[in-house]
Amino acid sequence: MRGVPEHFPFDKDCAQFKTLPQLPGVELYHAHIDQYAFEPHSHDAFGIGTIDHGAERFRYRGSQHLASTGSLVMIKTH
């Protein structure tokens, strides 16, 4: 996936991608990111995520947001 490093510089950080033949065009992304910070970027499709543990901090349209455990995050940028 564009913008995601093949190998993270921190041992605890990891990500896995999966596609399912029965859902063409859908990518599944599971990640544990403890220290890595992504550079500002955009996506050309919908992003739907759940926060199972911890929190996600992100900037969207000029504002900082925090999604805590149990949150559902949906973003469409284009």
Q: Can you tag this structure with a few keywords?
A:
78 residues, mainly beta, two-stranded antiparallel sheet, 6 strands
Could you describe the 3D structure shown?
Strand 1 and strand 2 form a beta hairpin. The chain is an all-beta fold and 78 residues long. It has no helices and 6 strands. The strands form 3 sheets. Strands 1-2 form a two-stranded antiparallel sheet. The model has no long low-confidence stretch (mean pLDDT 85).
The class by helix and strand makeup works out as mainly beta
The percent range for strand residues is 35-45%
Low-pLDDT runs? none
State the strand order across the main sheet.
Answer: 1-2
DSSP helix fraction: under 10%
Indicate the radius of gyration in whole angstroms: 13 Å
Q: List the helices and strands in order.
A: EEEEEE
- Helical run tally: 0
Number of DSSP E strands: 6
Shape annotation: globular
What is the arithmetic mean of pLDDT? 85
Biggest sheet: strands, sense, closure? 2 strands, antiparallel
How far is it from the N-terminal to the C-terminal residue, by CA?
A: 17 Å
